[in-house]
Amino acid sequence: VIQYIMLKGEPGHQDAELRTEYSIKAVTAAGIKVEKLAEDTAYWDRPKAVEKMKAFYAKFGDKIEMVFCNNDDMALGVIEALRQEGYFTGNKYIPVLGVDATAPALQALEQGTLLGTVLNDAKNQGKATFDLAYALAMGKDPATSGWKIDGGKYVWVPYQKVTKDNYKQFK
């Protein structure tokens, strides 16, 4: 059983809720059992994540086996706080995961301090928006745009897993 901390973007925010739900589902679907030690919000903010992680570490210490963050900035804040506790030197390591595949996160992947992130694919989100708008502007059914429309109003653009093995293709 992996004991983890979850840092959410903000309460009730759709992206925060979905990222929280599906990051844990991905782990449990792989057959790994998890136990949540704590969850809090850091409002997508690196300094707030440093502060929250310091408090979590003071309370849970070495019980923390993994940290999930709803974005890369918070993940980098967690890494900063853990470095202050002596992590990421020698064999002292806690896996930290983020979302967005930002340039600083890719650098952290290269350095081995961030275990992984996922690309929030803005390029294809923009393409989907354009394709749907174009179809509508041309008087066509948006279903002909090439994008699957879920529930008559949602287009889901898949996230892409980014790890130390493939991060260079996202630079």
Automatic annotation (TrEMBL):
SUPFAM superfamilies: Periplasmic binding protein-like I. Its main location: other. The keyword Lipid biosynthesis does not apply. Coiled coil: none annotated. Keywords: Signal, Sugar transport, Transport. Belongs to the bacterial solute-binding protein 2 family. This is Methyl-galactoside ABC transporter substrate-binding protein. It comes from Gracilinema caldarium. The lineage of its organism: Bacteria, Pseudomonadati, Spirochaetota, Spirochaetia, Spirochaetales.
